[in-house]
């Protein structure tokens, strides 16, 4: 199966890298093809126009079209995150908000893998 793993944080020393590495290693061992999307390495600005709101398809940034195609072709989506202030990190939300709602979370397994904060 084709899996796309989304990182979530862009902070230095982020815990997300450990979660993503664990999930990726386990899935590769099961024979799955893995692609990762990391907002730290993604040329997306703060959302102004999501992909499905562009009037002229030639105005859509190349990376955004490639990301959309990758998501459409995936058999499963995985979202990895550390826990930051009890919510989803905004870089991941911004990245996902660029994509159309369909087929993002439709007719395929999705997984949220997280690492909780330590302490109280």
Automatic annotation (TrEMBL):
GO terms for molecular function: FMN binding; oxidoreductase activity. InterPro entries: Flavoprotein-like_sf, FMN_Rdtase-like_dom, NAD(P)H-dep_reductase. Signal peptide: none annotated. One of its GO terms (cellular component) is cytosol. Residues 1-112 form the NADPH-dependent FMN reductase-like domain. Coiled coil: none annotated. Pfam families: FMN_red. This is NADPH-dependent FMN reductase-like domain-containing protein. It comes from Calicophoron daubneyi.
């Amino acid at each position: 199966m084709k899996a796309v793993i989304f990182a979530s944080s862009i902070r230095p020393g982020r815990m997300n890298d450990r979660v993503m590495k664990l999930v990726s290693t386990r899935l590769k061992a099961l024979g799955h093809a893995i692609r990762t999307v990391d907002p730290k390495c993604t040329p997306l600005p703060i959302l102004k126009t999501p992909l499905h709101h562009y009037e002229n398809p030639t105005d859509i940034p190349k990376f955004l079209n490639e990301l959309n195609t990758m998501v459409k072709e995936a058999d499963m989506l995985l979202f990895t995150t550390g826990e930051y202030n009890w919510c989803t990190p905004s870089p991941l939300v911004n990245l996902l908000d660029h994509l159309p709602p369909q087929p993002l979370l439709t007719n395929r397994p999705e997984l949220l893998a997280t690492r909780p904060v330590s302490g109280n």
